[in-house]
What does this fold into?
Amino acid sequence: MYRVPRRIKQDPEQRWALPDRVFFACGACHILAYAFLQRFPDQGFRALWIKPASGFTGNHCVVTNDAGLAFDYHGLSRFDRLMAHMQLKANRWWPGWHCTLVELPQDVLISEAKSRTYEGLWLREPKQFLHDAMPRAERYLEAKLEFTRCRAGQRASLAV
It folds into this structure.
């Protein structure tokens, strides 16, 4: 979990210049989630919005499946461990932080208009960044998957 100053998030050039990990943690997580769902359409993953309770910040989008796996800027992990990590970090910065989980249709992740139909959600479309964020998300996804395969000693594509 990262916190990026508002002045950077509001400046397209400074935002685009963030390291990939920070870029996909703070404001482009939904683009990465969409790229994952496009790459693995038949593996049972779905998008979740981690929606902070009223008065708190810390929105985040991840993908998860019924087997308890999750993917976000950290890479592939156990969803319960990811949530425990988020709870711990968020409560350091915002004591009392808690959230609800909202399942999102895939198309909401890349549509500002559709995202705005959910109270408290307002997502940028891939082309609303300084440059199209989708190719950057696809490259980051592939790098994370390659790291996961190498760490596990596998050469095949992700199979869940």
